[in-house]
Amino acid sequence: MRYMIINKADADSEAGKFPGPEVVEGVGKVVEDLSKAGVLLFAEGVHRSALGARVKVDAGRRTVTDGPFAETKELIGGVMVVEVRSRDEAVEWAARLAEALGSEVEVRRVVEEADFAPDSELYGEPTNG
């Protein structure tokens, strides 16, 4: 199963400040351990929202809103995608990343083709899978 681990932007990252050496080292160690464990598919940070845009299409009309975006708690600072055996394993890796970052991260299962089958958990009660 693939899971996305999302770390949130904060005021410093939105101001374009690079994280301190302890955070860089801690995250680097988590990425190295994920790679050694053979579960890391990719890990990337993203630039501050001032360099981004939000795109909306409504009734064929496109609206593009340039950043920055005010609500930093809803902004993504970076993502990792891991392929693991269970949600619990993804949560363990996410906990290591959260500790290295000193902040909360979010874990979300990536939708796969099999999830669209009528008997999949997508159509029923969520499981820990």
TrEMBL record:
Protein name: YciI family protein
Gene3D superfamilies: Dimeric alpha+beta barrel
Domain of life, per lineage: Bacteria
Sequence similarity: Belongs to the YciI family.
Ranges where the YCII-related domain occurs: 1-112
InterPro entries from the UniProt entry: Dimeric_a/b-barrel, YCII
